[in-house]
């Protein structure tokens, strides 16, 4: 890479549940805290998450609460790209791609999700964002065994569906 081009680093934080009043779940906060750890000057942040019965039924999109959390932790307003107002993981990638298409500089992307979600995120983002330099971060989360096992079962089923049927977007 001797071109001398500056590569813009973009952190994409995938959405996860929040309460009806907008309180972020522990899963959400763990992803956002990872974003804070990885953030460097001149990095950009793309928060995903709109509304959906399984993750956000509040007044504002999930990405709004994610950005508010990051701002309260010291990230500058200038670091944020438009929200990807998505309703699921495939939609995260599709809507992020549309936002990224507006950026004229070369970019490298770090997609931040939870460890249990990482395999499916890789499948989806590697297909939809083919051609981008991608790095994936799977953040540990603290859930009780029953909840964690339910999430793993959901992921296994979703991955099987992708492998058997491909992605629809």
Question: Helix amount, in percent?
Answer: 40-55%
- Encode the helix/strand succession as letters: EHEHHEHEH
Strand content: 15-25%
By secondary-structure content and strand pairing, the structural class works out as alpha/beta
> Outline, from the CA principal axes?
globular
Question: With helices defined by DSSP (H or I, 4 residues minimum), what is the helix count?
Answer: 5
Radius of gyration: 16 Å
**Could you tell me the mean pLDDT?**
95
* Main sheet: strands, sense, barrel: 4 strands, parallel
Calculate the terminal CA-CA distance, rounded to whole Å. 33 Å
Number of beta strands? 4
Report low-confidence residues grouped into runs of 5 or more: none
Record the strand order, biggest sheet.
2-1-3-4
Task: Please summarize what this structure is.
With 169 residues, the chain is of the alpha/beta class.
């Amino acid at each position: 890479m001797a071109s001398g081009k500056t590569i813009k680093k973009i952190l994409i934080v995938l959405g996860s549940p929040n309460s009806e009043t907008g309180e972020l779940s522990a899963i959400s906060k763990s992803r956002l805290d990872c974003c804070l750890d990885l953030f460097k000057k001149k990095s950009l942040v793309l928060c995903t998450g709109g509304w959906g019965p399984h993750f956000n039924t509040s007044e504002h999109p999930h990405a709004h609460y994610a950005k508010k959390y990051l701002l309260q932790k010291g990230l500058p307003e200038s670091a944020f790209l438009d929200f990807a107002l998505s309703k699921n993981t495939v939609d995260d990638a599709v809507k992020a791609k549309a936002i990224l298409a507006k950026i004229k500089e070369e970019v490298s992307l770090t997609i931040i999700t939870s460890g249990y979600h990482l395999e499916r995120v890789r499948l989806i983002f590697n297909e939809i964002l083919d051609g981008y330099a991608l790095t994936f971060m799977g953040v540990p989360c603290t859930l009780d065994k029953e909840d964690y096992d339910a999430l793993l079962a959901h992921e296994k089923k979703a991955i099987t569906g992708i492998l058997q049927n491909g992605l629809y977007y």
